[in-house]
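Reviewers of the previous submission asked for a worked example of the structure-prediction workflow described in the proposal, so we include one complete record here. The input consisted solely of the amino acid sequence. No template or homolog information was supplied to the procedure at any stage.
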Amino acid sequence: MFKSVDKNAFRDAFRASIPIFIAYVPIGLVGGILLNASGVNLFFIFLMSLLVFSGSAQYIAASMIATGAPISSIIVTTLIINLRHFLMSSNLNMVIKNKSPKYILPFGLGLTDETFAVNYEKYISGKWDDTRAMLVNYLCLAIWLFSFCAGSFLGNFISIDTYISGFIITALFTTMVMGAIKNFVYVLVAIISILSFILLYSMTHSSLIMVVSPIIACASGLIIEKILNTSKDEEGN
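From that input alone, the workflow returned the following structure tokens.
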């Protein structure tokens, strides 16, 4: 998988991952403490972090486990929360050069909102390749595993106010969005995504809105760009 890795590729991937590392450590520590408090042992916390690799899903799972929810409900909830990965994967599919199953399957394991944001932005800038993208995914996964396991260990000795996790995750997403903004179209898409989520969720209270809202925002962005490009062509003529 990493046969052609050189120092420059590793350095580039590591540097690109630093903002994610900074956020994943506190998220993982808090998540590990929560899961430990819910009665999940270290082995299963490691396994969940490896196979699920989703902060929102693992936090919700901790809450559901603590309330005695059945495993089937936890699995279905996790699936619904992570349906947005279909949208992210379809976008990356347009820029990833190595599309063989031997690459795609392990790459998908490390796909999160944050690794998607970093890799997609690097790909469209033209200064990225599949090796660097894979390294970003697995470097972030390694930090994630370490942080959750460390949190599980610390959970045996300390307890914390879990409300801080919401601030950590919000700060992480805000950083990713601000780093991706290049012009006012990006700002409009972000605003449309936020407003559509708030409006639709207030009407339906469904977790599926996390998938519907980004689709609405992406479609709006395409329409706006098409209108702007058409206007430029008309002015040029």
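The chain has a mean pLDDT of 81. We consider this example representative of the routine output the project will generate in years two and three.
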